[in-house]
Amino acid sequence: MDPTRAFVKNVKRVVVKVGTAVVTRDDGRLAVGRLGAIFEQLEKLNSRGFDIILVTSGAVGAGRQRLKYRKMINSSFADLQKPQVELDGKACAAVGQNGLMALYDTLFSQLDVTSSQLLVTDNDFKNADFRVQLCQTVDSLLDLRSIPIFNENDAISTRRAPYEDSSGIFWDNDSLAALLAMELKADLLVLLSDVDGLYSGPPSDPRSKLIHTYVKQKHQKAISFGDKSRMGRGGMDAKVKAAAKAAYSGTPVVIASGFTSNNIIKVLNGERVGTLFHKDAHMWIPVTEVGPHELAVSAREASRRLQALTSEERRKILLDVAAALEANEQFITLENDADIETAREAGYDESLVARLALKPSKIRALAESVRRLADMEEPIGHVLKRTELAEGLILEKKSCPLGVLLIVFESRPDALVQIASLAIRSGNGLLLKGGKEAKRSNAILHKVITSALPEAVGSKLIGLLTSREEIPELLKLDDVIDLVIPRGSNKLVSQIKNSTKIPVLGHSDGICHVYVDKAANLEMAKKIVLDAKTDYPAACNAMETLLVHKDLLASGGLQELVQELEEEGVTLFSGPKVNGAVNFSKANSLHHEYSSKACTIEIVNDVDEAIDHIHSYGSSHTECIVTDDHDVAEYFLSRVDSAAVFHNASTRFCDGARFGLGAEVGISTSKIHARGPVGVEGLLTTRWVLRGKGQVVEGDKGVVYTHKDLLMSNGY
């Protein structure tokens, strides 16, 4: 639950207002399907014990549509050629209200819900006895689990016209909903609109950003409103005025889209939906709060300042980061211990708890890896190719940073250090979102690292996101963020890929295989298999499936491998071909990442079947063959389509540090841009630099192209 939405735990009585743009389609007809979906939500909430009060617009629009049709049917061809007089709004309201309530009653009846209609006018609320009676009637209806449906009685209202008069106790159905929320002592008011909430400008403007929490001191004068509602009399301006009035009188308000599935239920579940208005919002959100867009822009600006430094200055930053990690070891372990304790109390699996741990030895190892990264060759501005296009016209292809990276990772706080140091080394800005289970560890590590950044760069080079609700908005910033790297499950990677136009470097499941061939040295195979599974079972490069050649079943080799694993406390599960050959449980799936001391064992007929199994059930991460047959090994290495393939070496070697990359942001199973352990090189792109002496193309008449490759002395 989003912290700013915690108040919903105490919500009992809810007023829901549906605007004209929600009630009707673009052609003016009633949006039956959309209304049905909304009413299903109201039925569920009603059955869960919530008091639901509905305020509806749309009568005038619905009536106009019906009267126009009737007028056309009853008109002669000559009448239709004459200028058409605008229909009387009050007549439209009278006709539309009848049709609207007939539809509402039908929809609610289908859901076995009783509804009731209450039409009110502005003048009614001037009568104190009316207000008392209104509350008593609504209380009685709610006790009977009936849903009261309110609408302004436009047909007999004393207003000059429904669209013109904005004076009085209430002036449209938004302000009526706010008034009812206050009169009936509602705990929450939900205003459904045709947009996702309140934006900083017109929603159609790509520069406009969704405001999740409205703070009067911050937003009142900073927002520019777009056009009014396409059908109703109000618009977002009217909704904001009504929402602010209700909120600052004590009833929280959420403006959300009526077009999005289950939005009302999401609001009541505490999800960060739409825009929240609350009288205490200024205490939760600083008036100078930096939003996701500002965070990304700040990271980009800081990255450009970082790139402007000399190579030695960037190297010194990394050395300062390493020293800061060691100097703050005590504070880091203190916060990490708190995360571990919280995780255990919450009942997290021990494999996840193991990923959380940051022991002093681990912190010192991280500091050393940062120093190694600092001592690596300067990656920025490296000349990859130099060509003479024509005499005095020299073209260079040079390495350069990508720009701003968004990296979402789960569980492991040590990943934050590796990612941050790689971003600094490669000159990139960085936005990080870690798992909630490592919240305190991530926060202290971020503070330690950013405190080591010089003022010339600024601490905003690396931003730490604290709420997952910020991720969807960041994924829309394809004009600022250049690459997204999700480190986690296939579900996480798929969700992010489906939610953004920004390039995504996929890092998903680590279902790694070791295939022990019939020509394997069995003693070597035992060492490799044990290391691949038990060195760090929670790692993504740990073995999850052991494939064994069928001949090892007859020779006893399979039994020896099983014995070695069981003696190390590894729980074994069998594939279909192993069932009966050895005595352990059947695997539920051959595509499974245990991330613990457990693995699947399966028998294969030959190397081709091993390769087919890997392609069918693997995750394209890391695979190993153990064999003394060189030809079989080369066959395996050339045909397995994974990011890393090994011969006679543990899968645990698939690691940025072990590959000499200094560190890694993850292991990519994608094929575009970077694959396998992604170090500094994977966070760089290229650009072209052309130096001339006044040359012009001029139809290529005056240019003699040489296209001569030039030797590079040191790459810079």
Describe this structure in words.
Residues 297-564 form the Aldehyde dehydrogenase domain. It catalyses: L-glutamate + ATP = L-glutamyl 5-phosphate + ADP; L-glutamate 5-semialdehyde + phosphate + NADP(+) = L-glutamyl 5-phosphate + NADPH + H(+). One of its GO terms (cellular component) is cytoplasm. Pathway: Amino-acid biosynthesis; L-proline biosynthesis; L-glutamate 5-semialdehyde from L-glutamate: step 1/2; Amino-acid biosynthesis; L-proline biosynthesis; L-glutamate 5-semialdehyde from L-glutamate: step 2/2. GO terms for molecular function: ATP binding; glutamate 5-kinase activity; glutamate-5-semialdehyde dehydrogenase activity. With 716 residues, this protein is an alpha/beta fold. It has three domains: 3-284, Acetylglutamate kinase-like (Carbamate kinase), CATH 3.40.1160.10; 292-498, 3-Layer(aba) Sandwich (Aldehyde Dehydrogenase, Chain A, domain 1), CATH 3.40.605.10; 512-664, Aldehyde Dehydrogenase, Chain A, domain 2. Helices cover 38% and strands 18% of the residues. It contains 25 helices and 24 strands. The strands form five sheets. An eight-stranded mixed β-sheet has the order 3-4-2-1-5-7-8-6, sandwiched between helices. Helix 25 links the parallel strand 19 (622-626) and strand 20 (644-647). Helix 2 packs across helix 5. Residues 161-166 and 226-234 have low confidence and may be disordered.
